[in-house]
Design a protein that fits this description.
By secondary structure, this protein is of the alpha+beta class. Helices cover 39% and strands 12% of the residues. The chain binds iron/sulfur cluster (2 copies).
């Protein structure tokens, strides 16, 4: 985990303004059941979305401002819903791995230690759970 509160405060979250950090399945729990339950909770909050790469392989990230409640959302860039004037609204324990593994450096030369490829490979193992969680939330919305 890489945290440099002073440096990020000075920068005012350029990374968060550009695109939200990517989450890993383990950010939602340690078991398949926990991950499924917490993904449903996350999608119902409207603050988390499923995105995909050029090969249509899925991953999860915070939603983008103005695009809350889009469970599936493919965006090239946009500001993370959790960014406030005072910084990230989430405690360190709740932040996506992609945020915690971005090493803050001077002159915006921050280094990402979690690749999109690795993230996608992790989500591939939970694809069924991910899609089932999205279907569950969709059903819930239809019932409302
Ligand atoms: S990680 Fe880098 S880009 Fe993001 S807020 Fe910190 S210094 Fe700025
Ligand atoms: S979750 Fe927090 S640290 Fe990560 S991109 Fe969003 S505002 Fe930035």
């Amino acid at each position: 985990m890489y945290v440099n509160i002073e440096l990020c405060k000075k920068c005012q979250g350029k990374c968060c303004k550009n695109y939200p950090g990517i989450a890993l399945p383990k950010d939602f729990g340690n078991t398949k059941e926990e991950i499924f339950k917490n993904l449903i909770k996350a999608f119902k909050s409207g603050k988390w979305s499923i995105d995909w790469d050029k090969n249509e392989e899925y991953f999860v990230r915070p939603s983008i401002k103005g695009r809350k409640f889009y469970i599936f959302d493919h965006a090239i860039s946009g500001e993370c819903v959790f960014l406030t004037e005072k910084g990230c609204k989430l405690s360190l324990e709740k932040r996506p791995s992609g945020c915690l593994l971005l090493e803050p450096r001077e002159s915006e030369k921050c280094i990402q230690h979690l690749t999109k490829r690795n993230t996608i490979n992790e989500w591939k193992k939970f694809k069924e759970i991910l899609l089932n969680a999205a279907i569950e939330v969709d059903k819930f919305e239809v019932e409302l």
